[in-house]
Design goal:
single chain; 8-stranded mixed β-sheet; alpha+beta; Elongation Factor Tu (Ef-tu), domain 3; 7 helices; 424 residues; elongated
Length: 424
């Protein structure tokens, strides 16, 4: 049996040959492999460029420097006695004499005060009635008499009166009349009655009883019985003290406001004279309140503050170290009155002076000394100076760490708040 042989053709080759068979125009070119280049993102390149430019700009920015220097502070305290004298017109620093000036002010005042005591008060109602005479044409005299109101309240006339007789007008009888003051027989509010008619009990049972009578045209008033306030001696004493202090305060305030500018008037130097104290009520008066009035005269010895300040400044240099100055705003002067005699026109005052001092640092010289130095060298140099307590150095955005050579780029000033004091 004859064997058959079959060629095994790879699929790709077979396909290729098939394609060639279909078209003679197809040509095959060799395949070329190209390796792709890696590229950095454009955004990253931009960021790096900006950062580099920023560093360059910052490095070359003007290097403005601000330095604050806090000097070592020292306490200063001393005491001096000065004489305020009315008899001198000039400051005498050698003899501690300051010219003075007498000032005074007067005023009066009053105040209402409450009574603290208590008492039982009784008062009788009073009023006016009109008495009529319809009995005879001749006048009739009445001694102090009783009058009874329509509701039975008894009142007494306060004076003897004469009642005119009646007369006729147009054939009509017109009784004679006379007003009379009356007062209730007893105390109490029940006698505060309204207008009414009155009869005379003494005439009861006679023809006079109905022809001599009385009427009131307004209420009786003033009847009272109860507890009320009463003025005591303590009330008067306390009122006097309160009014005196009030007048003193008001008068001193008035005196101070009237002073010329720059003048001082220590309150301890003022002498107050209280006079004409008067009370509207005496001790024992049964009232709820009373009024007290008084007058006051205040006299003092004033002096110019500028004279004292100049005196202190002239003496303070003797109490601070050489080449030191007083820190602004720290000078304090306490005035202690030792003696005052307005008759001789002199007053002795003890001045208790306190302040803080520091070396008079030449800031321009310091600025020249640190020009061109590094920040570290500047800090070491300034902190090594014995009169400097601490420093604070600030700079702008520049990366340079040196003090500029241009003095206009350097600002140096004294710090405001010292951190510690030294008594050396």
């Amino acid at each position: 049996m004859q064997k058959k042989f079959f060629d095994i053709i790879p699929p790709k080759k077979k396909v290729t040959e098939s394609l060639l068979a279909k078209s003679d125009s197809v040509t095959l070119e060799p395949m070329v492999f190209v390796k792709k280049k890696k590229r950095f993102p454009k955004a990253l390149i931009g960021i790096v460029t900006i950062a580099v430019l920023a560093l360059i700009v910052v490095f070359f920015l003007p290097n403005d420097v601000e330095i604050k220097v806090w000097p070592v502070m020292r306490d200063v305290a001393f005491t001096e006695t000065v004489i305020i004298d009315l008899n001198t017109a000039e400051v005498d620093l050698e003899n501690n004499i300051i010219p003075g000036q007498i000032v005074n002010s007067e005023k009066t005042g009053s105040q209402e005060f409450s009574s603290t005591g208590t008492a039982i008060k009784e008062s009788k109602a009073e009023g006016t009635i009109t008495v009529y005479n319809a009995y005879s044409s001749s006048s009739r005299a009445l001694v102090v008499s009783r009058f009874v109101s329509a509701d039975g309240k008894l009142f007494w006339s306060t004076n003897k009166i004469t009642i005119p007789g009646y007369h006729y007008e147009g054939g009509k009888l017109i009784p004679g009349e006379k007003e009379v003051e009356v007062i209730a027989a007893e105390a109490g509010p029940e006698y505060n009655i309204l207008a009414t008619t009155f009869a005379l009990p003494a005439l009861a049972g006679t023809a006079l009883y109905t022809t001599i009578y009385a009427k009131s045209f307004s209420p009786m008033a003033g009847g009272y019985e109860g507890e009320v306030g009463q003025v005591t001696q303590d009330d008067l004493d306390n009122a006097e003290n309160i009014l005196e202090e009030k007048l003193k305060s008001e008068n001193i305030d008035q005196l101070t406001k009237s002073l010329e500018e720059d003048f001082m008037l220590p309150s301890e130097t003022i002498i107050n004279d209280i006079s004409n104290i008067k009370s509207s009520q005496l001790v024992g008066a049964k009232v709820d309140s009373f009024n007290l009035s008084a007058g006051i005269k205040s006299t003092g010895l004033a002096f110019r503050k500028s004279d004292i300040d100049n005196f202190v400044l002239a003496n303070i240099n003797l109490n601070i170290k050489q080449d030191h100055i007083i820190k602004e705003g720290t000078l304090k002067i306490e005035y202690v009155l030792e003696e005052v005699d307005l008759e001789t026109g002199q007053m002795i005052i003890r001045l208790e002076v306190s302040a803080k001092s520091h070396a008079d640092i030449d800031l321009e010289t310091l600025k020249k000394a640190i020009m061109g130095k590094s920040f570290k060298e500047t800090e070491i140099f300034l902190n090594s100076l014995p009169e400097i307590d601490r420093i604070e150095l600030k700079t702008g955005l520049s990366l340079k760490k040196t003090i500029p050579e241009d003095m206009s780029k350097v600002e140096i000033q004294l710090g405001v708040d010292p951190v510690r004091n030294s008594d050396n």
